[in-house]
Amino acid sequence: MKLFRRVFHDITNVSKKNIKLTIHKSSHRKKLIRWLYEVIRDFKYSQSTFGLTIYILDSYTQQMGFDINSYQLIGITSLFIAAKLEERATKPLEDYLVVTDNLVSAEELINMERMIIVNIQFDIKIPHSYLKLWYLKRMTNHFTMKERQEILFSAFACIIEKNASIKNIYCVYLEGIREAERIMSGSDISKDLEFYIKNNRVIRHIDFKSVTNKLI
Question: pLDDT by residue (tens digit) across 89-145?
Fold first, then answer.
């Protein structure tokens, strides 16, 4: 597989055929997670699929290590596996290849899928008992339920990015809830979190400080 030397694009504004990724010598995980987040949003997959994708990615790379040339392959394969477990309807294999600009082949993806499943010994389930609506319902009602869900998704994604090892997904989720509540209270938004909000079609238009000021 070729070394990734392509430009990172915002896929909310371009077709899937133009989704590309740049890998530098630093921040490999951060860049890959952000790319996967955009792919998952484009595919309209769920928050639990995103969480499981990163869990699989981290579990495999921490156990086996990785060659930088195969990092995107591992990432997209982790998503391929997670979607099979979490989504009722999944995208065809071809879509997973297209979002890598066809730098990944079907054979490579299927072979990597086999390697990941074997090496992490099928331990790729995360609990869903905490993914309950009451977490969202108890938040401020000045945002729609869908907006609250997407605010939480963005906060959750940002927290995952900062955690190099997701050993306790429940704790990460709770931290995401606290961050989401902070966002909705009008607190300052970090540049990292801003990336996830601005790349979320549902909430990127919201001026959180303006909404909060109107309530005072």
Answer: 999 999 999 999 999 999 999 999 999 998 887 666 665 545 556 667 777 778 888
d(CA 44, CA 202): 12
| Region of residue 102 (phi > 0: left; psi between -120 and 50: alpha; otherwise: beta) | left
Tokens of 4: 């990734």
Chain center to CA of 168 = 16
Contacts of 135 (CB under 8 A, 6+ apart): 152, 177
Count of CA atoms in the C-beta half-sphere (13 A) of 168: 6
DSSP 5: B
Mean pLDDT of 179-194: 91
Residue whose pair of structure tokens reads 């997973």 in the numeric block: 96
| Residue 151, H or E segment | helix 145-162
Residue pair 208/189 in contact (Cβ under 8 Å)? The answer is yes
CA distance 183 to 207: 10
How far apart CA 150 and CA 116 sit, in angstroms, is 29
Contacts of 52 (CB under 8 A, 6+ apart): 82, 85, 86, 124, 126
- Residue 106's nearest CA partner among 80, 87, 83, 85 is 80
Cβ partners under 8 Å of residue 202, min gap 6: 146, 147, 150
User: Rounded mean pLDDT of the chain?
Assistant: 80
